[in-house]
Amino acid sequence: MGKATAAPAAFEPEFIEGVRTIFEEKIVFNQVLGLKVQDVAPDRVTARIDMRPDLIGHYAYNRMHGGVISAGLDAMGGLAVMAAIGARHMDEAPLQRLQRFAKLGTIDLRIDYLRPAIGAHFELRAQVLRLGSRVATTRMEFLGADGQLLSAGAAAYIVS
């Protein structure tokens, strides 16, 4: 995986707020999904999504639709890459690091649906497995309120 480097203990509040604003407000589709950032750390990110009547699949009452799960996990992989890029460039000011996300895009996505996603809310987690100069690889999880793994994902993102 390359040279190991010590990750910073935590990001500055203005960086975290900037990432949250980009993720929750500037990316309109994330607003539609209702994704809310819970934690942004250099090595992992977490978010929450609440069940909403307009996100329920037409064939299964109170079951989160697979498309919503897939989109949420894809967004979380992107958020994890944002955090990893931010950690890599801690020598830059927070605003300068936030501008590095303009070229981020999904190039490959795989989702495994393990169990029906039934519940009032869900937790999404993601981490970067490898951050290269052009491509980042991530792993994501979609969990029920009880912590049970409902879906898992893996993705690759273009970062340059």
In whole angstroms, how far apart are the ends? 19 Å
Poorly predicted regions are 1-5
| Tally of DSSP β-strands | 6
Give the name of the CATH architecture. Answer: Roll
Fraction in helix:
25-40%
Into which percentage range does the β-strand content fall?
Answer: 25-35%
Q: In sequence order, what are the helices and strands, one letter per element?
A: HHEEHHEEEE
C-alpha Rg, in Å?
A: 15 Å
Secondary structure topology:
Elements lengths: L12 H14 L1 H6 L2 E6 L2 E7 L15 H23 L5 H5 L6 E9 L7 E11 L3 E10 L4 E10 L2
Antiparallel strand pairs: 1-2, 2-4, 3-6, 4-5, 5-6
InterPro entries: HotDog_dom_sf (IPR029069), PAAI_dom (IPR003736), Thioestr_dom (IPR006683)
GO molecular function: fatty acyl-CoA hydrolase activity
Family: Belongs to the YigI thioesterase family.
Q: How would you describe the overall organization of this protein?
A:
There is one protein chain. The protein has 160 residues and is α+β, with helices and mostly antiparallel strands. It has a single domain, classed as Hotdog Thioesterase (Thiol Ester Dehydrase, Chain A). It has 4 helices and 6 strands; from the N terminus they run H-H-E-E-H-H-E-E-E-E. It has helices spanning 13-26, 28-33, 66-88, 94-98; strands at residues 36-41, 44-50, 105-113, 121-131, 135-144, 149-158. The chain has a 6-stranded antiparallel beta sheet with strand order 1-2-4-5-6-3, covered by helices on one side. It is globular. Belongs to the YigI thioesterase family. It catalyses: a long-chain fatty acyl-CoA + H2O = a long-chain fatty acid + CoA + H(+); a medium-chain fatty acyl-CoA + H2O = a medium-chain fatty acid + CoA + H(+); a fatty acyl-CoA + H2O = a fatty acid + CoA + H(+). Residues 62-149 form the Thioesterase domain.
